[in-house]
Every structure is written in C-alpha cells, then in structure tokens.
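Take a look at this chain, tokens included, and explain the fold to me:
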Amino acid sequence: MVALQGGSGYVRGVRYQNMRVDDVSNPIIIDQFYCDSPTPCQNQSSAVEISEIMYKNISGTSKSKNAMKFACSDTVPCSHIVLNNINLESRDGTVETYCNSAIGFGYGYVQPSAECLTSSDKEKIIKQEPELALCGMAGLAAGIPYI
C-alpha cells in the first residue's frame, strides 16, 4: 500500500489475508512517502491517513532485506496495524522489518519480528476480544479501546 507524498484523505479497514508471495521486492509495505517521479520528490509532511490494516496468513520470500516496511509520516502516523501468522524469508535467510511512525502489533507467529511497531494495549486487546483483532479492528466501532 503506497500513498503519494502530500496526499490527503484516508485508507481504513483493509485486510490482506491468505497470500503467498514469491521473490517480490516488498511483500508487506505501507509507504506514505511514495514518489513516482524519476527525480527525487520534495519531502512533504502531509499524508494520506492509513489505519486499521491487517495482514494475516501471509508467507513467501522477499528480494529485499526489509520484507516488511512501514514508512509512515511523523505528522500522520499509520495506526492500528495488526500482523498475524506471517512467515517471510529470503534466499540468504536474513530479512528485517522497518518501521517509522507505525503503531500496531504482531501476534502469533511473525517472521521477521515486528517489534518496531509501537502499541500500548496489545495484550489487553488480544485477551479481551481476540476475534476482533483477527477481524481487522472491528472492535473500534464497538467502542473497544485499541491504542
């Protein structure tokens, strides 16, 4: 999921589920700094708001070191990102997760680790309503606190 720099609006409630990806550059990506120009784009602080994004049951291989990349704006952070049952590898076995201003959590098996995602209520949400976490934050509409 990419958004052009300086964009406006929002993307919410998206679920990527039951996918196999093989030898791709960015298996899991949120990038609020996307630039489709052959020359460098001017850095802009406004961004499309991205929230309530779930990645579940995704496996495969990555061409790049950062198999998961969450490059979010400091002024409009990405929020409510949930990862569950993720298994991404590379040919040489070393993959990482990159995060900037990304709020959420991973639970269950998540490889590579997503500890760079920040969240204050991971255990609370999973214990209270595990199915809501699985359903991509449907609990937000029900008034269940998340982060």
